[in-house]
Write a structure and sequence with these properties.
189 residues, Rossmann fold, globular
Length: 189
């Protein structure tokens, strides 16, 4: 079983990216488990807080979930043509202490996707994540791209992804990333 963790970079209850993550969980292929991690409860990064109290429990839990997973999928919003502050803040906590970066991110396959009500999806935000992931020594998957544009028109009244064409694209994206992750795993004996 290949285990992936997905993280929505939004806190809003009706987030398009959380809806996209939830749809991806439903659409994960056989032999792949995709679970949701959460950035909720992670405070603003403060080196003094880290020195006094260590890593906050919400960040420590998410670090352990990522470290235990075979791959990571970032479901990124795009705010003002960039990475959402709350999402970047969470990743900053997850990279502390710096000696823990190899355990959490080092060589970890990471896919980036996202949904936005705008006409270009989250292409700018996805691109902005690349130097961050390179710095963390993650294995950023370049085999596919999923930027869901006009997401507000693709959800039903309950906030679920209802557009079949987008669901098909999402299923392919997750399946292709999972195949990449599986190809990197050592053979089971």
């Amino acid at each position: 079983m290949t285990r992936l963790i997905g993280i929505s970079g939004a806190l809003r209850r009706a987030s398009f990216n959380t809806a996209l993550l939830n749809a991806a969980i439903e659409l994960a292929p056989a032999g792949v488990e995709l679970v949701a991690g959460s950035i909720r409860g992670i405070p603003l990064y403060d080196g003094d807080l880290e020195a006094a109290e260590g890593i906050p429990p919400a960040a420590a839990q998410l670090k352990d979930q990522i470290a235990a997973a075979d791959g990571l999928v970032l479901f990124t919003p795009e705010y003002n043509n960039g990475i959402p502050g709350v999402f970047k803040n969470a990743i900053d906590w997850l990279s502390r202490p710096a000696t823990d970066i190899p355990r959490v991110f080092g060589g970890k396959p990471v896919a980036i996707c996202g949904a936005s009500p705008g006409p270009y999806g989250t292409l700018i935000s996805q691109t902005a994540w690349l130097p961050v992931l390179r710095t963390l020594q993650a294995d950023t998957w370049a085999g596919g791209r999923l930027a869901v544009a006009r997401a507000n028109t693709l959800m039903d009244a309950q906030g679920k992804l209802s557009d079949e064409a987008t669901r098909t694209r999402l299923a392919k994206f997750i399946a292709d990333f999972a195949a990449y992750v599986q190809a990197r795993q050592p053979a089971q004996s």
